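Entry 12.
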Amino acid sequence: MNNNPVDKAVAFQIKTYSRALAFFLSIVALSIGGGIYFLYRSKTLLMFRWADALNVTGHIENLRQSMSIYNPSDFVKYNLPDGLWSISYFLIIFSIWGKVGGENIVWFCLMPIIALILEFMQLTAIIPGHFDWWDVVCYSLPLIILITITIVKICTRKKSYHSLQ
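Predicted 3D structure (tokens):
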């Protein structure tokens, strides 16, 4: 273990920048997902009531009109926002905790698992909504990537620990 104060300061700066970058990317992913909803989804969604409350509906209508020449695929309109929001959630949790694994893995997994449960509840008509396998993929893929990264980190630590002995 290196006790050099300069190395510790550099490591702290890198960790701080990583957390700030994660927070920024979380906002970007959340904004893109929300933007897709505002531009291409039904005006009956809850987000449009928020827009009304913020008195920005006119601006959104102008954007919808100018973007009407584009017709993104159904995947982009209906599934991609879910994946972006899932990624946004992981990034915001990382920006709070500053690491992945250990005691915080529950927080990383909480929302995607809830989202998957709700999606399957739509399949069984327990709650209203339209079940979609692509939503399952978009909720699951970031979770699978997170778990894979965590496992690789654990295996790498064990391997480096055993090589020191």
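Annotation: The chain is about 80% helix and 0% strand. Residues 5-164 form one domain.
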